[in-house]
Design a protein that fits this description.
single chain; mainly beta; 6-stranded antiparallel beta sheet; 3-stranded antiparallel beta sheet; 11 strands
Amino acid sequence: MDEIKKPWGCEELIEVNEKYMLKRLTMLKGSRCSLQYHEYKIETVYVLSGSLKITFGHDITSLDSKILVSGDSFTIPSGLIHRMEGLSTSIYLEASTPELDDVIRLQDDFNRLGK
């Protein structure tokens, strides 16, 4: 597995092929990924351990949130604005369509905006 360090933790690419992608991610407590959306990619997150807050919605000015714990899952369709945040250090799987670079960042704690 290829481990990719991220400012919020790390991700491990378990499988990438023309049909699907599977990652194992670690989100550190108090960290969060970009507020983002995907043009094509559809993904499902499945929490293995920890407590993960997901913020989501279709309009950046009106977002909902949900707390996911071990055994919970959440599917993110293309176009849905979303962000994950570690309420505790969390490990989760992300199964998705294979568009690895399909991310449009709207807000980012680490100044990584745009595509």
